[in-house]
Amino acid sequence: MTALLLALSLAFPASAAPNLNSPGGEVTLPWNDFQSLYQKGLAPEKAPEKSPLDYTLDRAVYNGRLVGKGEDAYGLFKLTVRGNVHKDKGWVTVPLLSTGAALRSAKIDGKDAAIFLQNGYYTLITDKTGAFTADLEFSTSLFTADGETGLSLPMAPSGATEVTFTVDDDDALDFEIAGARGQTATTNGRSRTVTAAVPSLGALAVSWQRALPAEVAEAAKTARVYAETNVLFGVSEGVVQGTARVNYTILHKGVDTLRVELPADVTVLDVQGPGLREWTQALGAPGAAGTNIITVRLNYEALGAYLLSVDYERGLTATSVLPTPKVLDVTREKTWIGVDARSALELVSTGATGAVPVDVRELPASLVGQTDFPVLLAWKARGGDVKIPLEVKSHPDVDMLVTLVDSAVADTLVTPDGRRMTRVRYGVRNNRKQFLRLSLPEGAEVWSASVAGRGVKVAAGEGGGVLVPLVRSDASGGALTGFLVELIYVENGAPLADGRGELRVELPRADVPTSQLQWTVYFPEDAKISKKHHDGTVRQVEYFSSAPQLPSDARVGPQAQGNVQRAANNQDGAGALGQGVEPVRVELPLAGQVHTYEKMLVLDEPLWVSFGYTRRER
């Protein structure tokens, strides 16, 4: 409104401006002029533009050094990442560091960061907007061959990336950082330090060796390729599926052709990698029949880190050898192997050659993160021929619970003339059961039933009892949601005694387990019940251990609710779901003395209580 008043004031000269504060002032404008001024006063001239990206990483600084000697040596880094979250509302995930490294700590603006694994990266999750600074400390393994030592690690893309690495050594060293721009080397005592800016769309690859004369070093520059392979085998009925992720480190010169050897009897499903132009497979060669050579050609020369993924499968027998891949044309190869079972199978392996069994916890996080099944067996190998026999024992499946009543809430109204009206509400989670079978008290007559808010008619079950049609629960976040089943029935009985008497009331027996039962009995006000004269299978309590927990009628989707109606329409004459007629919904009038009963973990068992009372008719 303020903007509208401003627009009106600007529309008139100062001498002719109306007194807008005067209660008797009037302004006369043509409708089109007033509407134009009104719109200018309400609508902003230009809506704010939404950022095309949820986040950006502006700068990454890797500061590392060599720790330890020999086979125990590793690279220890401190990584500082500066970024901005541009999304106004909601959660954002920001990849920071490859899971090929071992993360030691992660802080955001000095506080512990919320980090999880996603797509091969340690990933930050945050709902805060604006600039942030992430400080991470991590370690990474090294490779060594022919006097050269180095490390390789995929990097999260950032606007600018700077690398500093220090090695303590008495000898002069030649450093190489793949793709480096402006590389400089300094010496301080025994500390040899290299610093460079590197392209952010690739990997951090640093190597070093003893310095050679310049002319010798230039002549010796040929492509040197190292490989670390993570292989995950998933074993199910009759088949073993393999996923091999080959992490190449390519130094000195780029290569555009890569080769992987597999057993001849596997079926290759897919081969993927950045810039992949084509892949082919051929039996035999080099030198060994019964092999399957996968040749991958790239549309550029890869340098630094390169990830190649190969998916394949093979038929499984009771005793098999795992189809482990072998990477060809590399200076050094290291392989991690993990096996998971995807059905009720027992896996046993003894007598492996070319590979050493290791604890599953030693496997890289990037390998374990590929599967939702537990990894049961693990090995590591350092090149050469690997043969891992696997014995598979199949066991029969055990029937599991497919339907559960999380909570049952019952209300029973007892009238002075001896009639009893009971309402039972069940919070059900159902995977594939068609009916809920209920054994009612003798002589009970069903008045009303509903499932997921839809009225239904129940069917007569064989051997007595009734069948209430169920729907299948919706899945939400990998779990089944609950829905409400309600049943109301009436029992006739003798009028309450004038004087002393005893009454027994019962609940239906359900053919599925119930986690918690809460039962309220309403007894006429003119009767007195002795607390000492209670008996039954359900314990009397002064109050319930928790508030009744039941799903609402709308906890299943429209499609599931429609299934109930279709079941009613399709039921034949033998069932009592009727000819598409929806029954009348009955409400239970609750009044009288309140007595509460509760039972945990109810199985297929009788549910009843009895109590003595005294009553005088008026």
Number of strands: 44
Radius of gyration: 37 Å
How would you state the average pLDDT, rounded?
Answer: 82
How far apart are the termini?
72 Å
Note poorly predicted spans: 1-18, 554-561, 570-581
Overall shape: it is: elongated
- CATH class category label of the largest domain: Mainly Beta
Strand content: over 45%
Q: What is the domain tally? A: 4
Instruction: Describe the sheet with the most strands.
Output: 9 strands, mixed
Quote the CATH topology of the largest domain: Immunoglobulin-like
CATH architecture of the largest domain: Sandwich
Question: Helical percent range?
Answer: under 10%
Q: Compute the number of helices.
A: 5
Structural class, by secondary structure, is mainly beta
SSE map:
Elements: H1 2-11, H2 31-42, E1 55-67, E2 74-85, E3 92-98, E4 102-108, E5 111-112, E6 115-118, E7 121-126, E8 130-140, E9 143-145, E10 148-154, E11 160-168, E12 173-177, E13 181-188, E14 191-198, E15 203-210, H3 214-219, E16 224-236, E17 239-263, E18 267-272, E19 276-283, E20 291-315, E21 319-321, E22 326-328, E23 332-341, E24 345-348, E25 356-357, H4 365-368, E26 375-381, E27 389-394, E28 403-414, E29 420-430, E30 435-439, E31 445-451, E32 454-455, E33 459-460, E34 466-469, E35 475-476, E36 479-480, E37 483-491, E38 499-507, E39 509-510, E40 514-523, E41 527-536, E42 539-541, H5 558-570, E43 593-602, E44 607-615
Parallel strand pairs: 1-11, 16-23, 28-40
Antiparallel strand pairs: 1-2, 2-8, 3-7, 4-5, 4-8, 6-7, 9-10, 10-15, 11-14, 12-15, 13-14, 16-17, 17-20, 17-22, 18-20, 19-20, 21-27, 23-26, 24-27, 25-26, 28-29, 29-37, 30-34, 30-39, 31-32, 31-37, 33-34, 35-36, 38-44, 40-43, 41-44, 42-43
